[in-house]
Design goal:
Largest sheet of chain B: 3 strands, antiparallel
Number of helices of chain B: 9
Order of helices and strands of chain A: HHHHHEHHEHEE
Structural class of chain A: mainly alpha
CATH superfamily of the largest domain in chain B: Winged helix-like DNA-binding domain superfamily/Winged helix DNA-binding domain
Radius of gyration of chain B: 28 Å
Helix content of chain B: 25-40%
Shape of chain A: elongated
Radius of gyration of chain A: 38 Å
Strand order of the largest sheet of chain A: 2-4-3
Shape of chain B: elongated
Largest interface: A-C, 47 and 54 residues
Oligomer: heterotrimer
Low-confidence stretches of chain B: 1-5, 188-217
Distance between the termini of chain B: 62 Å
Chain lengths: 262, 217, 217
Amino acid sequence: MSDNIFQEDPISVADRLAAEALIVDVDGFEGPLDLLLTLSRTQKVDLRRISVLELARQYLAFVERAKVLRIELAADYLVMAAWLAFLKSRLLLPPDPSEDGPTGEELAAHLAFQLERLQAMRDAAARLMGRDRLGRDVFARGQSENVARIRTVTWSATLLDLMQGYARIRTRDEFRPFVMDRDSVLTMEQALERMRGLIGFAGSWTDLTSYLPEGWDSTPMRRRSATAATFAASLELVKEGRLELRQSETFAPIQLRKRDPH
Amino acid sequence: MDDTETPPESLFAAPPMAEQERMVEAVLFASAEPVSVRDLEARMPHGCDAAEALVHLRRRYEGRGVRVVRVDDAWAIRTAPDLGFLMQKETVETRKLSRAAIETLAIIAYHQPCTRAEIEEIRGVSVSRGTIDQLLDMEWVRFGRRKMTPGRPVTFVVTPQFLDHFGLESARDLPGLKELRAAGLLENRPPPGMLPQGAPEDDEVAGVDGQSELFED
Amino acid sequence: MDDTETPPESLFAAPPMAEQERMVEAVLFASAEPVSVRDLEARMPHGCDAAEALVHLRRRYEGRGVRVVRVDDAWAIRTAPDLGFLMQKETVETRKLSRAAIETLAIIAYHQPCTRAEIEEIRGVSVSRGTIDQLLDMEWVRFGRRKMTPGRPVTFVVTPQFLDHFGLESARDLPGLKELRAAGLLENRPPPGMLPQGAPEDDEVAGVDGQSELFED
């Protein structure tokens, strides 16, 4: 990040051409910030002294040119264009006291900070990749020793295996054909088994609902399923001659009683 | 080593012997196989005398923890025989955990404390005894407190060793589904029509079955 | 080691330091991976001081063809960087990293622990699926602890393998780290008002829901 002596140099024709040449390769940019960073280089100043207003002009001109050339720009480029147009107006017009929010200068300073930070990370990445690297410049032991004396098996798995395993199970559900979640469904077989165990104690008329298994009234879905299964199981037991059912009127509670074998 | 003839005259001077010794040292260290004098010289700058460098290097390592040894007509660096007892850890054989075990482990980690029935519910297949025994044996999983539900089933939780192995501060640091998806880990979609029961993995590797016998009560 | 308390009196005296140095030398030579002081001491006889032995060993190898290097809290022997040219045969083809992956890696290294939203904020574009996946797969990056900000997003940190690959003793030794910090370029400065780049942040908040699902009962 060395200071540059051409701080306020007006943009030369060559730089202008270079900026316009960018249009040809709009796909080569990794988003608006990357494009802004490239455009900012035409100013030939330290990023900390960049003219954001000038940069906004360049960017908007770029977007205009793209329109003329009928290059379709991705939405985020247009969002950035709209934002820069707004920033430009804030920077050029005297501040409106009725409007709150950050000033144009604050917004410009943050944009400059973002550009500087992105450039700094790119420089850092380049320095990192330029280091002496294992397997290329520096080498590990080629022949790690294996004295096969004790063979203990250890089982290995990486965090990635673990997460992929979990992801595999969790996404399997997304693709199975629709089936009811079994934990909210009481099957008739389950209800029947339960009722067989309980009817021995049903000497007198008892409300059917009191035979619902514990915990099954927690949600409407579970309650409905348990009621239906218990009712169906009761009908089955009536058919077997082991139970009597009665209901005083439509929608009245259904009651049941053990039927003694004659 | 028998090769004592002088190297051919060269237009460029060979590096000093101390430097040649460094080179031989680095090559022997990094090579997967023993390296012959000829191969050493083929790699080193022109005019080097690998045989002589080996003599120096060999002397330098006398009495050290490693030695320069001759294997047939090639050379290698090996640990000193009297220190073999230190290498026991190197003999450990590492095997990949079976898919069933990984999935079971993942469910315990994400849902702990977690009963066997819950694991089966999530995996959609029954969990063989060997799988959990294996995880218990590895000390990645231990028994948690019993659940206060009918039957008071035992639960499983992951251990500090598990966290240590996977570099986690706590099980809470495991990334969520959304984050897994964002990282591209959920991309491999199973073929459509694949039923949960339809995935009868190599549920247990043969070895695991054998192991379960070992841990039977 | 931080642990400076004197070891408990032992019936057997620890071996002399020269002998301990040999042992450390043998173990480091035998292993391709870095070995921690703790692992060294676990293998060595009771009462040994691997950290001190390492100081001696490191000095002994100064200027040699191989060097004793520190990787995080572990130690390894590696060839001297100036001799890399001899090792063409050993060079492993590393997977070519995309520019996005390289930048993402640098951002994680310099800003760690670092969330996905922060990476996106700095790069100004969303992080594609494969990018972090690739870094995780190479084991240069792993999940760190969750951030104590709304949504408790997961973070990424670099691994010892990353340090080993780039020849760094610790993440504090990243090139230019101090200067970047002094210049305020490692701060997470929130944008004044609304910037288009701020958008990924919301995404992270939505992540809470996905996350909580996992930890239901």
